[in-house]
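Exercise 7.
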Amino acid sequence: MTTPGPTTLIVETTADEESPFDFLGDSSDIVYFMSFAHTERYGAHPPLAKAAAVLKRTLRINIAPLMTFADARTEDAEDEALLERIWQDAAPLADSARAVAAAIETTPELRDLTSDFPELPQRLRELADMADWAAARLAKVRLTYVL
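Solution. The predicted structure, written as tokens, is:
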């Protein structure tokens, strides 16, 4: 199991057993990607937001499963309710994470836009492995982060 850095993606499942898969490196790249991808719809222009636009609009990759996440730390009942609402089916998350990783590696524009996050494709593949494992057990997945 990796030692979490200051910014960490937490992957939980509803499976009855603990996943044998984990991130093999710092998961902050995924948190940054998901956060900036979320800002893209508001007209943000940082490289990761632009990458999200290319993925969604040019390559037509469904990144919605990667956009379903929340802060792991809660302050009130509303935050707690949000955490319960973000459980999602694991298979679409696996498909999305794998497709984004492949697109980054095979699309020069995406490689350029994500160059400051060189481990992003590998972390996405690891996330896909975790989600595939959960899907095989008919389990849901929840993505949260800590900063």
